[in-house]
Write a structure and sequence with these properties.
169 residues, NADH Oxidase, 4 strands, globular, binds flavin mononucleotide
């Protein structure tokens, strides 16, 4: 596909199986940088991040989600948080976090890494803050599990475009 941006969007998949190869901290910081270049309402930039490579912390975090096998297999995790002290509009700031997370997933793919957006872990977001020793003003939006994909065979699908378009006027 000649359009690289569309190609990146269409070929990104949630990667849930990873090799044991460690992920470079420089790459993780690049992924966060791609995240912070997402649009945000009023350019409020409400997102905050915790980058985790420490095996002991990863193991502790794995116990907070039904998807512990994914967390255990990932070589790195990035927690994406909203700073409650920096929220100007809850809906818009949450939307901004979503845009940030999508940028991060696309950036990971572009660095030959892969990742998955973990939302189920939000059920235990207070526990996540405790493990990471961060203040409750930081509200978990998602945990990204990242690593070098063990394979790229993931398939996904979408409903037909017509299902979503209400009207063409
Ligand atoms: C808000 C949100 C929460 C998600 N939570 C999880 C999760 O807890 N565990 C998981 O394995 N995947 C999770 N996903 C990934 C979705 O399952 C995945 O994006 C969807 O099946 C489409 O597949 P694709 O990303 O490969 O296109 C989540 C995605 C989003 C956007």
């Amino acid at each position: 596909m000649p359009n690289k941006i569309l190609q990146a969007i269409y070929e990104r998949r949630s990667r849930r199986d990873f090799t044991d190869d460690p992920v470079d901290m420089k790459d993780l910081q690049e992924i966060v940088k791609a995240g912070i270049w997402a649009p945000s309402g009023l350019n409020n930039q409400p997102w905050r991040f915790v980058i985790v490579v420490d095996p002991k912390t990863r193991k502790q975090l794995s116990a907070t989600t039904h998807y512990s096998h994914i967390v255990l297999g990932a070589q790195a995790l990035i927690g994406v948080f909203l700073d409650a002290d920096d929220v100007y509009d809850r809906v818009k700031d949450q939307q901004s976090a979503g845009a940030c997370i999508q940028n991060m997933l696309l950036a990971a793919e572009s660095l030959s890494l892969g990742g998955v957006w973990l939302g189920q872990i939000l059920k235990n977001k207070e526990q996540v803050n405790q493990i990471l020793a961060i203040d409750e003003r930081y509200e978990l939006m998602a945990m990204l599990a990242l690593g070098y994909p063990a394979h790229r065979n993931q398939k996904s699908n979408r409903k037909d475009l017509n299902h979503f378009i209400l009207k063409l006027i």
